[in-house]
Structures are given as C-alpha cells and as structure tokens.
Amino acid sequence: MDGDGFAELIVATEWGPIRVFKKQEGRFVDFTKQWGLAELTGWWTSVAAGDFDGDGRLDLACGNWGRNSTYELYPATGFRLFYGDWSGAGGVQMIEAWRSGTNWIPVHDRTWLARGLPSLAVQFPTHEAFGRATVRDILGAAYDKASYVEAAQLSSIVLMNRGSRFEAIPALQAQLAPAFSVNSPSDGAGSFHQPKLFRHGVRHFPRRCRTWPVASRQGRWIVCGDRFKRERNLCLW
For residue 62, which of 201, 192, 169 has the smallest C-alpha distance? Predict the structure, then answer.
C-alpha cells in the first residue's frame, strides 16, 4: 500500500473499520489509524486490492451491508451495538441502537428485545412507554459501564490510495444489497484500471433484516475509470 515493496494485511471487520496491518520486525503492527481508517467503521464483509485509477498505488474495494435494508428507516447517523451481562446470569445481552442527537434509540421493538431481556415487559408495561425510551433508560445505572461497538456507515465503498491516506468513494449501485465478496480480476492489461465484481448474497432472510430477502444471486460489475460510473448487472446462478 505504501510502496515499500512489502505487502500489508488488510482485514474487513464487522462493527469495526477496514484494518491495515504492516509487517515490522517479524510481526504485524496495526496501522489502521495512520491510514485514517479508524473511524470508518461498518459491517464490512469483504475487501479486494487493485490499482483502480492507474496511479501505481493499490486501492481497496470494500463490501458493506449496503443501503437497501430496514436500517435505512433510521437517519444515517451511525449505529451502535451495546452488550453486557445485564441480567447477571453469566450470559451476554445485546441492544442494537441508532443515534438521535445525543441519545441512542433501540433499533428493535419491545417484543423483540424482551426475548433476551425479560425484565423489559415489567420496566415498560406498554409499547407506548417503550417507544419513548432510550438505551440509557433501558439500562439505567448499567449504561455508563456498558461495552459497545459501532458502525458509522453501511455503504460499500472504494478507498482510493492517495499516498498516506485513503479517499472514500461510494460504490454507486453496489448499495442495492449486502456485498458478501469483492473480486478484482485483471483486465488483461496488468493492474491498471482493474474492474471489480461486487457479489451480493443469495436469497435468504438474514436475522438482521427480519422482513424481506436482501438479494437474489446478483452481482455488480464495475469497470474502473471516470469515478466508477460504468456498471453492469450480473446474474450469478
């Protein structure tokens, strides 16, 4: 990535950033912050490298959950997953939340959350009461000690290598569904202007969405150059 002749390790993480590890003195050292990616958290599913603009530097194509799910019902202000043993039973309970100003609001409804937190039915006896509650209201004194991870965005993106930092560019209509894999095959002319294939998920009802299939064996073929505007649909059977 930095032109020193040694390959870095790039890792796509869920509820975290695209992480960059550089090998130094026989071990991998985390350089995510140095590349400006520490705050670019998401539900990253895949990553592929290639020189997409022909400047001689390796860029990254990064698959994410996309912008066509039930999570688009909430303002694009970021998501947080709170977790901890709030019942004292030795297990782990979780609450997904979206940010509204300085408050974090539960993504799931009272019935859904009560499966893991039965006390909610007593704490909030009606759906109306629960509808006004923040995560702080739900957890009470445990809120300040609760652990959490974050996702700042859900868009699949291309990270253009600018030498010591990356420039994030949305991958246009690759947002139509979760991109569970990204491939960057050669176009027959070396690494220059390599095309990218974002492969979306097979038809299923993931636990996260709960309402409708998120894809149907489709892919998005993106030919690089001109800000990645040339795209083609593929049907993968």
Answer: 169
Contact 153, 76 (CB under 8 A): yes
3-class state of residue 129 by DSSP: helix
Q: With left for phi above 0 and alpha for psi between -120 and 50, is residue 113 left, alpha or beta? A: alpha
Query: Letter for the amino acid at 100?
Result: S
Interacting residues of 217 by C-beta distance below 8 A, sequence separation 6+: 200, 202, 203, 235, 236, 237
Strands (E), 25-151: 27-30, 41-43, 46-50, 59-63, 79-84, 93-100, 103-106, 147-151
Residue 65 has pLDDT above 70, yes or no: yes
Report yes or no: 62 and 182 within 8 Å, Cβ to Cβ. Answer: yes
Tens of pLDDT, residues 30-39: 999 999 999 9
Residue that has been written with the tokens 């176009």 in this structure: 187
Full-model pTM: 0.76
Radius of gyration of the chain (CA): 20
Task: Give the model confidence (pLDDT) of 98-150 as tens digits.
Answer: 999 999 999 999 999 998 888 899 999 999 999 999 999 999 999 999 999 99
Cα dihedral 210/216/221/222 (nearest 10): -30
From first CA to last CA, the distance across the chain in angstroms is 34
